């Protein structure tokens, strides 16, 4: 009898201990149920939108995406029901795109797959064998996507004795220096309370890209003192010019419609007259959109203006002093005012405010 009682007590203690430790070892399934009106979206290659009705037995819900080719708008997240509107732009690629919308409420999750058909013909021109890996068409929102773009914040005189103060989106008085509007990125230089303000933005500053075909469509401003640029700097920057600089397009307002490309390294830099640079006349560069691009490999860098070769430079096998261009670089767009080059013939403040517009930036790499 004692043995039976002892066995019963030990069994009860074991069950109790197992029950106490169960919560930490095995997560309990969520008691919340999520319902959705569709569990899969199969979109055509053309632009489309869909509404997903959401219900939950919880008190609230939220949603996020795992794809970057579409956007979502949420409604009613603080209640037990609502909706998610999925907007999918036209697919410019000849490849199927996939992603998902994830609905969450408490510990519960519901995944809606999003698949978009491939375009019959690519919408973007690129060299043979290259595919689009990143782009911004500036079609959504009124501000730059913070996941893609970083604003520089620096006072006047920071580099090249330039006169502008770079700020994040807004001046102290609330005027915009960068804005996404009517399908373009607008970088505006203006004067406020006696100071000049402008914008300088970096694309994927922490990752950048190593090699590729990179293109932007840009409308340059008019006015003596302007110095707009589309260029690249190394992600792992330590010192200049040792780590390199790639200038795809620069122009100064006192020399209108003449655009330049340059490469900077220890072996070729403007400070000692050894720079690698080329200037080209581009009719209507100020006031009209033109395409500026670079084709960058481990063997050569070539820049283009509307498809015409601007500058070409080969890797001559002379080492890093001559070719520091085998590391990831990130894209920069900025509008400077004055400075060593832009202000070489003075500035005309009567032209302020003025704006540089960018229709798109596209990055292609080898398949």
Q: What does this protein structure show overall?
A:
With 367 residues, the chain is mostly beta strands. The chain folds into two domains: 34-116, Sandwich (Immunoglobulin-like), CATH 2.60.40; 130-366, Jelly Rolls (Sandwich), CATH 2.60.120.200. 8% of the residues lie in helices and 45% in strands. The protein is built from two helices and 25 strands. Strands 9, 11, 12, 13, 14, 16, 21, 22, 23 and 25 form a ten-stranded mixed sheet that branches. Strands 10-15-24-17-18-19-20 form a seven-stranded antiparallel sheet. Strand 22 (300-305) and strand 23 form a beta hairpin. The longest helix is centred in the first third of the chain and has 24 residues, at 2-25. The chain is globular and about 70 Å long. The termini are far apart.
Q: How do the helices and strands line up, and which of them pair or pack?
A:
Elements: H1 2-25, E1 34-36, E2 40-43, E3 48-56, E4 62-65, E5 71-75, E6 81-88, E7 97-105, E8 108-116, E9 130-136, E10 149-151, E11 164-166, E12 178-181, E13 184-192, E14 195-198, E15 200-203, E16 212-219, E17 226-234, E18 245-250, E19 258-264, E20 276-281, E21 289-296, E22 300-305, E23 308-314, E24 329-337, H2 339-342, E25 354-366
Parallel strand pairs: 2-8, 11-14
Antiparallel strand pairs: 1-3, 3-6, 4-7, 5-6, 7-8, 9-25, 10-15, 12-13, 13-14, 13-25, 15-24, 16-21, 16-25, 17-18, 17-24, 18-19, 19-20, 21-22, 22-23
